[in-house]
Design brief:
52 residues, mainly alpha, 81% helix
Amino acid sequence: MRTLTARRGLAAPFPPAAVLALLAVAAAALEASVLCWASIGALAGYALSGSV
């Protein structure tokens, strides 16, 4: 039963979106512009795919 709860938590739309947003902020802070734009693009693609 515990594995179903963990899978449900990973399947929720918030964790991947939060990780991508934090990656974008961290990349911007490190002045890694390519990584920053790549993570923003991934976040936009995730949002547009209907996963959110």
